[in-house]
Amino acid sequence: MTRSLHHSHDPLLAVRGEGQFLIDEKGNRYLDAQNNVAHVGHGNVHVADMVSRQLQTLNTNSRYLHPTMVRYAKRLLATLPKELCVLYFVNSGSEANDLALRLARAHSKHEDVVVVDHAYHGHTQSVVEISPYKYDGTGGHKQVDWVHKVPLPDAYRGPHRGAWTDEAVGKAYAADAARVIDGAEARGRGIAAFYCESMISCGGQVIPPRGYLQAVYDRVR
């Protein structure tokens, strides 16, 4: 391993996985509590079988119609509110967030984005610029002028921790965000979007307090 590759843990040579376990070259098994790729476990037989069957049938992107895409779209739409009725398939979360940024700017005619401190939204250039976890880190660049950072809405740490109700903490952090947005708009900066994970992962697995997301989105809109 080169010195340019950084690990947040001791290097692990994982040669295969089974369910929730990683297995190294010596056969040692490790409980995988970090990987965010294998959502249904490593080596899932059902997933492996479906991928194999699809590769033997057709391997292409979404420029062509295929019954599987239509079935998948219908099943996905059935889980969403009726207002969300158009799907656009992409390859990754980075690509999805990049597309969301372009859509927000086209709709709002504004450029600026509000983000939560410590958040991570992807690895392309546009979403690195809205990811404090990246641009505030070692070797990161300075915050660009069209990004406005609001405090991490953490009920256990930060300025509003304490023996409050969850709703009160949410209102306090939402008020902090509103002040940042007010300041940006006072400087002539139009807000196109507010980005926030439903659970802020790189910020410490923080679930926003009750009412926070709704209040900030209402303010942005």
Task: Indicate the topology.
Elements: E1 14-18, E2 21-24, E3 29-31, H1 45-57, H2 67-77, H3 93-108, E4 112-116, H4 125-128, H5 132-135, E5 147-150, H6 166-186, E6 191-195, H7 212-220
Helix pairs in contact: 6-7
Features:
6 strands, three-stranded antiparallel beta sheet, Aspartate Aminotransferase, domain 2, alpha/beta, 7 helices, globular, three-stranded parallel beta sheet
Verbal overview:
With 221 residues, this protein is of the alpha/beta class. It has a domain of 128 residues: Type I PLP-dependent aspartate aminotransferase-like (Major domain) (Aspartate Aminotransferase, domain 2, 3-Layer(aba) Sandwich). 35% of the residues lie in helices and 12% in strands. The chain contains seven helices and six strands. The strands form two sheets. A three-stranded antiparallel beta sheet has the order 1-2-3, with no helix packed on it. A three-stranded parallel beta sheet has the order 5-4-6. Helix 6 packs parallel to helix 7. The termini are far apart. The mean pLDDT is 90.
CATH homologous superfamily caption of the domain at 93-220: Type I PLP-dependent aspartate aminotransferase-like (Major domain)
Low-confidence stretches: none
- Say what oligomer this is: single chain
Series of secondary-structure elements, N-terminal to C-terminal:
EEEHHHEHHEHEH
- The CATH architecture of the domain at 93-220 can be named as 3-Layer(aba) Sandwich
- Principal-axis shape equals globular
CATH class of the domain at 93-220: Alpha Beta
**Structural class, please?**
alpha/beta
Question: Termini separation (Å)?
Answer: 48 Å
**CA radius of gyration:** 21 Å
The CATH topology of the domain at 93-220 is given as: Aspartate Aminotransferase, domain 2
Spatial strand sequence of the major β-sheet: 1-2-3
Q: In percent, how much strand structure appears in the residues?
A: 5-15%
**Biggest sheet overview:** 3 strands, antiparallel
Count of DSSP H/I helices: 7
